[in-house]
Amino acid sequence: MAPPRLTLVPSAQALPAPDATPAQLDSIKAQLDLVLLALEAIADLGSEAMLQAAEVLNLSEVVSDRVNLWRLRQSSPLRKSSGGRKKLDIEEARALVLISAHLAQTHGAVIRDAVSRLEQLTTQGKPPHGAALLGDYLDRFCNAYQERMADGDLPMEPLTHLALKLLIDLLFYSNPGGQRHLWLALLDRAQGSGAIAESL
Amino acid sequence: MSTVNHRYSSKTWSLDLSAQQSPLSRWTGRSALRQEQLRLALLGAEAGVAPVTWLAGDRPCFEALHQTVERYVHQGLSQPVLGPQSTFPGAISPSHTAVSTVPGPTLQPATLTQSELTQSKPNQPKPNQSKPNQPEPTQPERSLFFLEALGLLRHRLSYYPPDTQARQLQLSTLQLADLLAVLDQWQSETVALPGQAPAAVAPRRPRDTDFVVPAWGRVAASVLIATGAVGSGVYVINQQLVRSSASQIALESPTDTASEQADAFGAFPRSGGPPLTSQSSDPNFDQPFLPAPATSEEPGPESGLPPSVVFPGGSLDGPLPGAPLVLGPNEIPPNGMNGIPGNNLGNNSGLNASGRLGLEPGEGDRKSPATGPISGPISGQTSGQTSGRTDASSGATGSTIAQANSKAAEDQALVSPQQAPETSESTSTSTPEETARAAAIARPAPRATEPSAAAPDESATPQVAAAAPPAPQVTVAQPLPANAQSQAVQSYLEQNWKPPTSIRQPLQYRLQVSGEGKLTRLEPLSPTSLLYRKDANFPDLGETLGSSGGPGSTLLVTLSPNGTVKVVVEQQD
């Protein structure tokens, strides 16, 4: 009973694009960058994988090359940035959302495995580093965060918690329709989290 | 239309669909379906283990489930990941036995304001985990389903069907994600054709701009309904008891105007003096709280009673420890006097200084809540009160006033013997004012006239529940001596019962504790008790609550708004 599908590739147009204030855009940029950071860490991805995803999703015009991708991500207000692009418009944000969700779905198995191990260790009262998959993820995430972000001296405990929270979020983004969940989460956070911009 | 069957599955769930597919599917891009029947099953962790069906129903039911799950997940995803507002998995309690000890997105079955959500969680964790951005309940109306966090990685899904017992299921985060996935998939691939009932969501909470049925409208509706519902047979049977206490009944003051009385849902005049029942002890209200049946039946003229469910508090035959009573549609209580829910007249409750039995005004459904337990002594009553329409503080006893919940109210409008004759004998000795008042008292909720649109009866919004007349308290006429189980339960609840500020009436539950001290059954005995069940902080079923080695016990637990806990042994194995 498979219904006819009009498109096989999720469209950025399917993500509603409300008018976002600069503060809300800042929040979206920050959150997106963190999601991509988490994806890099859990699946050991690089920019090449993101560009490939953009190509699959017909988003090469928005995310054309590595430099362009770097500039889009560098627009995050959390980044150490001494210059470069500061803006990210809604279309670019939607493109990054689609790319993130696509990567999460592509690597859904490892995300799922990581969450499963996290559940087991948490139930047993053991630290998450006890599983190699989680330990590697946390190491990569923390290193990348400290290297790239302005508040790189964030203590390990909140950094670890941040990484695990993002890992759990990735689980939901890896579902079919995850792009919609990610987009709505970004908008909800942006609407409610002027505190994020203030805390930056 | 052709019948289609489809299965949507994820790693841990399968959703089976059977429906009639419309040819319109060709144009909608999705399967256009009618008469969908769905079945949700939890897949076993091991291969070869048969899936366990957890839920079966139609589209509205599953739409409600999808909405609940989706909103819950979105609330979790919307939590900020940075800053003090973050939800840290490290703060998860190592023990998942406590209820809601860790913050997380929650969706109450009824509407709670932000402050009530915060206040209703007495076990707020952890110093490093503040929740200034506590997610607001996104469902302003009631829901069949309720999701709450037991940590960042554990979740509890509760299902409150209107006609059967509630069900709960603990989910891991993986299972939650998989559940959302199958529901998303189903929703994205199908569309319901018009003709199916809308999602089983309670009517939205009225707002200021909404048209509110005026009090006179409710009076008129209640008069019509009560007149048709109450037969003379009840009057005949109860006439004896009524007359026996006639001297004790204070008719309303001659100065009361008909309009006041017609408008006065609350006051049921009484004189001071001995109770109306000949029984000296409190009736034994052993009828558990039952959700309203799907349909209400017109009672025969000889029954004089509305449909079958007896609201807790309706001891129909004197103290009957341990024996539940359910009336058939044409049955009448043998002792109709005690058919008054919450009619603890044995202890003079409900009789105020002037002998008036103050009851909740009908407008109290949506107005300021009544205060005091329904069976407690009326306080603050003065002889100056008239029709009692504003006497919300009366601590209504006696006849049940229709609750805010439509279905529950429909069934809870058990006409008291005093009311029944007064309603039915409009042509006899009672004055028109008495008739109107009694009828008003006996009337169901305004929404009871729309049973088809009624949502599940449990859990009104807290504001509405708080505004609703207090439910009659269940009491045990012949309580057994305290035993180890009851003492252990008492001790546990005294430590864990933190009454939310929104509570205005006691919560009552019937617990069954096994000989091993494990909680085997937890039964809310009123809509408010069901609503605040989570706040009562009972442990989960199967967990050890009492002490082991003794006989199993059935306990009646009363949690008061002032924090007191009372545990009575109803039955012992």
3D structure, described in words:
The complex is a heterodimer of chains A (200) and B (573). Helices cover 66% and strands 0% of the residues of chain A. Chain A starts with 21 loop residues before the first helix and ends with a helix. Chain A has 9 helices and no strands. With 200 residues, chain A is an all-alpha fold. Chain A has helices spanning 22-43, 47-56, 66-74, 90-106, 108-124, 132-148, 156-173, 178-192, 194-199. Chain A is globular. In chain B, a hairpin with a 3-residue loop joins strand 1 and strand 2 (13-21). The relative contact order of chain B is 0.12. At the A-B interface, helix 1, helix 5, helix 7, helix 8 and helix 9 of A face strand 1, helix 2 and helix 4 of B.
Shape, principal axes of CA atoms of chain A = globular
Strand content of chain A: under 5%
Q: Please state the overall shape of chain B, judged from the principal axes of the Cα atoms.
A: globular
Largest sheet of chain A: none
